[in-house]
Structures
1.
Amino acid sequence: MSNYFYVSPEQLIKDRAEFAQKGIARGRSIVASLYDRGVVMVAENPSASLNKVSEIYDRIAFAGAGKYNEYDRLREAGVRWADSMGFTYAREDVDARALANYYAQHLGDLFTEGQKPLEVEVLVAQLGGDLRPTKLFRILYEGTIADEPRFSVIGGDAETIRERFAQAVPEVADLATTLRQAVAALAGPDRTIPISDLEVGVLEDRGARRTFARLEPDRIAELLGEG
Amino acid sequence: MGLPLFRPTQDPGPSFLGLTEALGVAPEWGPTTSDVPHATTVIAVRYVQGVVMAGDRQATGAYIASRDVKKIGAADRFTALAISGSAARGVELLKFAQLSFEHYEKMTSTALSLEGKANYLSPIIQRNNLSSPLPVLPLLAGYDPTQRAGRIFEYDGAGGCYERYDFATIGSGSPFAEGALRLGFRADLDLEAGLELAALALYEAGDNDPSTGGPDFVRGIFPMMVVLDAAGFRELAGDDVGERFRRINERRAESRGVAGGALR
């Protein structure tokens, strides 16, 4: 005969939240911010092939912090969802808000019903256009979704990094300034992040349908060197 | 549509065809019976730095259904897909191929090889053509960055995929275009010579085949011409194409409709 011990819902939620937070804290953080011509996502990532920042659709990008296998699965589901939506309806009907809501529902469901909550936080960025505004959606491990006006930070040390970045970049700036301050905010006062450990993706209109681009190390160095 | 999450054992991977099947939104490639417009002549010719393509603009059913169809599409930056056969199935195949190649690239962070793209289409064509009275026969051409050369792949009715090292034609005007290409092709064609030959071959097809549209000087609608090289896919401007066909037309008017013993 097995014994079931009573655990109060408060305690259960608290334990799960602690578990997820601990997992997320082990990963590195990501800063996403609007700049004068688009959206930039900056991650500290020593791996050149296991990406934290990726393309979802023509004007939508994804960033994940925490456990790689868990957020990469969400990224794949996002690409699949977006491509199937665009295939069934039209490319302009693919909306980041709908995707962010699905992520929130999925994370929320797993947090309360799953064997264990996902140890991830994800960001969905949308570059505005004629139809939709530029948006940053931040979705936490328990399904909380926030629509952040100018910049967003996910990952272990998010609060500290958020304060540093908010002070350094009080309003929307150009790409070089935004990138430099994002890297400084991620690093903190006592260390510098080598360029090889930076992963940077942007959403910017360059006349093509697809607006996502990864910045190569040379381009990152050039931008960080400016001013 | 909800978030498409799969167990690792049932995951469709980066194949968009696999994904649409798993989600139950795959296009129905089965038989239908209705009278539909047919697309007609498209040519691809290799030249030293890539491939040039030319395609007419007419869709023909029992009568001319459309005069400004674009039968060549950019499947991605370095790849073009041309369609012949049933217009509806062809357009669907083009859209499906574009999505599939981009889907693969986003899922895996690497672009599919040109040969991989050519092979991916085989079972789709096979399934369509062996079960449907509305066959499609596409032509895939592209610039292969690893080989630094243009490559052309053609298909037979059962989906077999064959690489062509000189030129390929699809559609009902093929025999006439092929004749001009056989006489005019050289392994050292440069871009200008390649475009000239492709335009001439298409002109021949339009001249002889009732369901291939020639240059339409009345409406200002001209065949579509495309270049694929190291810089990617680009379509020639309508004026440029119009000028090429005007020159051929003037030569033919001088000789009263015959090529005059030479490729001209």
2.
Amino acid sequence: MNRELRIFLKHGLLLFLALAMIGPFLWMLGASFKPNAEIERLALLPDDVHAQNYAIVLRQAPDPHTGHLLNLSFPRWYFNSFFVAAWVTSLQVMTSAMAAFAFSRLAWRGRDTVFLFYLGTMMIPSIVLMLPNYQIMVKLGLVNTYRGLIVPMAFSAFGTFLLRQFMITLPRSYDEAAEIDGASALQLFLDVILPLARPGVVALAILTFLGNFQSFAWPLIMVKDDYLRTIPIGLLSFQSDYGQQTELIMAATVMNIVPLIALFIVMQRQLVAGIQMGGVKG
Amino acid sequence: MRSVLLGVFGVLVAMSVVAYTLTPAPPRHRTRILWASSANPFRLAQIERFNALHPDLLLQLDSSNNRFEKIIVQNSSGVGPDCFDVLTGSYLQAYVESGVAWDLTDRADALGIKADRDAWPSIHNEITYEGRQYGYPANAGTFMILYNKNIFDRRGVPYPSEDMTWDEFFRLLQRVSESGPAGPRVWGTNAMDYSGRMPVPFLWKTLFYSQHAEFFSADGTHPTIDTPELRTAFRLHRDAVFRYQVLPTGVEVGTMTGQGGWGGTSLTQFAEGRFATVVSGKFAIASLRGFVEQQKRQLERWAADPARQAREPRPEVLRIGVVPLPHFPGRPSCGVALSQTVVINPQSPHREAALKFLQFLASDTYARMVELYGMPGNPSKVRYDYPVSHPELAEHELTRWVTRTMAQGYQTRKSPFLLDFDVERVLNDQVARLEADPALDPDQLVREAQQQLDDLLQANLGRDPRLAALYRARSNPATAR
Amino acid sequence: MRRHPRFVVLLFLAPNLLGFLTFTLVPVALSLAGSFTNWSLRPALPLEFIGLQNYARLLHDQQFYLYLYNTAYLMLALPFSIGGALWLAVLLHGQTRFRHAPTARRATLASGLATLAGAGALWFTGSPNLAYLVGFLGLVATLGFHFGSVTYRTAYYLPNFTAGAATILLWTQLYNPTSGLINQGLGRAAAWLGFEAAGPGWLTSTKSLLGFLPWPEFFNNGGFGLGAREAIMAMGIWAAIGGNNLILFLAGLSNIPPELNEAAEIDGAGGWQRFRHITWPQLAPTTFFIVIISLIGGLQGGFEQARMMTNGGPAGTTTTLSYYIYLQGFERLDLGYGSAVAWVLFLLVFALTALQWSRQARDGHD
């Protein structure tokens, strides 16, 4: 019983912390049902419930300012965000895992020096790299294409570093056993190390996917055509020089993040699943 | 593991196929013109009309925006939009200096978009730089005082008059400011600039322009900051905040807003009744119309619900009046004139087609569409007879006053030796200090700003020998070649 | 251990290295070269090699020192955000479900019913906002009793989903010196303790906790107190505790073989001892990663807040180096100088990282 009581108290503590964390979400959800005239008010809930914000965003109702349907294509933008993030995540996890394997499980001269150098490039503020990077994209003809959104993001020192940290903790005995069995480096990578580094891989996948789904600066300068926009760029449709339709931004954001939250729940369960994988099977 | 990898790869390939099949084909038989402009709700109708008039052209909006960095980065790499909006003369200067604005001077006359014939004289410095023309306005305007009649009526204070001095204006505002338990509940006036960021107070600038003052000497070689005009502007700005207490500081507005300092907030706060007046322009109409509609709906709901009537006061529907900016004793009212200038990318393969769009902006057809919320770029295209949809917003009165103030307004001169951005940033920093600490001496702040800007100008000259040569030629015409 | 053949190493490195060279190394080299030139976005300005001029200018740039100080000061929040995330990860990784199924069922049911009753009562007595808040929290509690830590991990990660407009908006309201929830709470607490004091100015104030030190005048120091910098730090800690650091620590914890803990438990080791002797050393690579990434992020940080919340003010106290680089490069069009600032920043981060690196390498050989 003592133990059960402790768990109960723990829940109390966790709930107290949750109170601080879910505030903005609650406000956003409430604001997505507010009319524009109420956006400035502090109250969480609208006085005059305005579910048509969602209809306007989905082009089922006209914009109150002009009486026209807004020029939006959220289904397409949503697909784009998902599509780009899925490609980036898969590529980045794969290239990072392979490089991390080379930096942690393979023995070669100058390994740590090269790695430190790799790491060093992360320390240069990305703002100064934006222009040269953009010019490279122009040279490669990747501006205003899906590839331009995906390819430069597929390689990351961050992911390599992260997975390296997970791979160096694994006992050497695995490699030796695999070597005795006559397994090649590729087999060692695919069949032993990658499954064992699963918590790291899943964590990287979550971070990359969510980060990319919400990335703003790079798509903003890369995309010109409407059909290539991702959601964060699409949200700019509600901002004009004459003001911003915050309630529509909130409605669109709620629709944007609810599936992401579901995905997050599914993916982070894999994090926990790592315990069984790492312990029992290994 | 291998099957997982193959599965992921399969899904990705399938999605790619979908993505590429759904890619729209480029329009055939039509030249596409991309216009980087904001997502103004009225744009769609304007674009539709242009496309209907030009069956060989297809104008499209790139509202993923007209941000400065994006335009500069894209254009300097040769892949910018075909044309884009420039919101103030300071930006035009920066675009021209970055070589991303097409010089139209020699063609303008033939196209019917000539600056000194077909546009308001007061916005010349908005569409031209160093004597060259770079664009045509999609919209022009000035600042005026919009006041909330409900608040003045409630307090029994007379409306602002057409001919007030700044001092009289602040005293009047003191009478309508209502103090609540936590600071004033209704502020006198709101004069904030938003560019998608934290509000930046601009009353000091309005006061400066009110004296028809300039930031640079006539030849552009000296920033004229430590001047009586700017000292007056700083002092009066401080008085409005601390002595009359009618103006909140930028930070106060930033923390009181519901939108966390995003565009349009000053108007929303004004419409909500938190400010008795706002320094704004005719463009305010665009957002106020929607606001008034919602307020009317709330009134209807209130009227239909007796329980609510017992609980809440009758909701107000905004009624506004408009007067020109106050003036200094012995001087006429004067203010800055602005334009939203459309500029063409010189590297665009469709730049000739984009000229057609500039001509459209100068046409009567366009003027009739823009007058609903703004001013046509050409004074001869102004009419007063468009249908009024919201009489409570004093729509015709607004048009009449913009026309008059456009005639009195001006745009400050720019200097090739120092970007206007730098002047603004240095002065805004000083104003922030002024607002944070009433004990600081405004004269001292102005002197410091002068010193900083002199240093910056010298640094610019040091970086660019050509600029230095131009500087020598201008500051000493006798020795110039 | 035997050396691996070079082509095997290259095979594994190639995909990443290829992209890395193209999209990172080339721009990096260009920006380094640019920092020795008058690189500008003005095409009228011919590109010229100017040697160390940008760096010399930087040495005499008072603002640079202020912004460097701001950046370093904001980084004082890092230990709290890392430590907080670690604490929370250990908490969430431990047992969060009741041992007995009936207890769990009863707790879930009781919590659900209490939520319905409480929220319903509030709703019908005319406080719908409170009902909404209580209802949502009750929902989290109920889900928490039923599903365990998954519920809380998701709840804590929410700030990362709502990042941007909603978050910034809420915090600016919370920080309002007069009507904000924080100062109202402080005011009430002060009144209860029997004294009266003006609340901190938060985003409106140039004060800081180190403000009592004799900083040079151009630091625009408002003296000792809580100001804009502390406001930004608190917000950063709030967003970081439940965010990516938590995910990474949880992944690190999952990587520890459970047998280690089980064995220690059988040996009678207490919670703290197990943390000290098993969790902490086993987690070292993850912690090291988070520390390095946080250092890098911290030195490049403060950009969003400066741009969206404070404009770098009041009086430059929340302008960080990354925001300064942006201002120099894209508002003053002086990319050469911006790059020089970036490279000085790089040297700082690199030195700090190398220090950490050698310490870790030394500890690793123990």
